[in-house]
Amino acid sequence: MDIIKANTSINFMRQRNTALIISAIILLIGVVSLVTRGINFGLDFTGGTLIEVSYPAAADLGELRDTLTDAGFDDFTVQTFGTARDIVVRIPADQDDESGADLSTQVLNALSAATPGIDLRRVEFVGPQVGQELAEQGGLALLYAIIGILLYISFRFQWRFAVGAVAALVHDVLLVVGILSIFQINFDLTVVAAILAVIGYSLNDTIVLYDRLRENFRVKRKGTPVELCNLSINQMLGRTLMTSLTTLLVLIALFYFGGEIIHAFAFTLIIGVIVGTYSSIYIAGSAAILLGVSKQDLMPVAKEGADQPDQETEVLPERFRRGGA
């Protein structure tokens, strides 16, 4: 069953300036939040101690937080890990300048006094230096991915498309990170992995759009870049919505039923899929048009002495020349 009919003619490009203004406003809010509130870095980047304990029965997180507060801890997070019996306590590295072993002992003693019979499963300590290195490596991973994408699309398509794709990806990353800053979502290595996945997801949609646009430039006899971009978006709209909706269904289930430990990962991907779908339709196409992409840029290079086939055989449908719905 087709969700989007084959003759769909939505004029997306008519709203491209409005979409760019909306994106600019959201990006500005995100940048202001990044400057004023910053990012809520997790222990992977700040350093600290992680203590995992197992309870004989389902634990009450509220009571656990009260117990640790009464024991003198004022900066910590308590989460379930897998089941309601498995609890993870995270404490930043700078609290009382205690070592990881001392902090884990104090936490275990405080929890054992309130609820006898708990078992210590594991203790992990990440030093501030290691956290700083992880932050640098995570940033470099994002930078290398964007540079690789720029080079690939320049080779595969055309430099204007490459710049447009990178603009859409930078838009996606900044917008997602800005939203994480606004809601103060815990930013750890799983979130970095989610952002890299968002880059791949958004790029996939963008390349499909650009491939369709290139093909339409080559085979359509008439039509401006704006009209052909509208046509290309409508041709891939059904595929884009089906992919996005099915992905979102999985991510929403993961967010609600996957446990608190992966909430940040699932939340980042949910925002990223929505933003990536939006940017593939409005940002990527608009950027290519603003950079002046034209039919001459995408026509095959003529070989000397070879008979050239008549590639401009199709006429743009009347509904796209009228601007669509």
Describe the protein's architecture and organization:
This protein folds into two domains: 12-39 and 131-299, Multidrug efflux transporter AcrB transmembrane fold (Up-down Bundle); 48-126, Alpha-Beta Plaits. It has a four-stranded antiparallel sheet. Helix 1 (16-36) crosses helix 6 (159-182). The chain has helices at 16-36, 43-46, 61-70, 100-114, 128-156, 159-182, 189-219, 225-257, 263-281, 283-290, 295-298, 318-321, and strands spanning 48-54, 77-81, 83-92, 119-126. It is an alpha+beta fold and 325 residues long.
Number of helices: 12
Query: CATH H level of the largest domain: which superfamily?
Result: Multidrug efflux transporter AcrB transmembrane domain
**Helix- and strand-based class?**
alpha+beta
Shape: elongated
CATH architecture of the largest domain: Up-down Bundle
Q: Main beta sheet: strand number and arrangement?
A: 4 strands, antiparallel
Give the class-level CATH name of the largest domain: Mainly Alpha
Strand order of the largest sheet: 2-3-1-4
Encode the helix/strand succession as letters: HHEHEEHEHHHHHHHH
Residue stretches low in confidence (pLDDT < 50, at least 5 long) are 308-313
Tell me roughly what share of residues is in helical segments: 55-70%
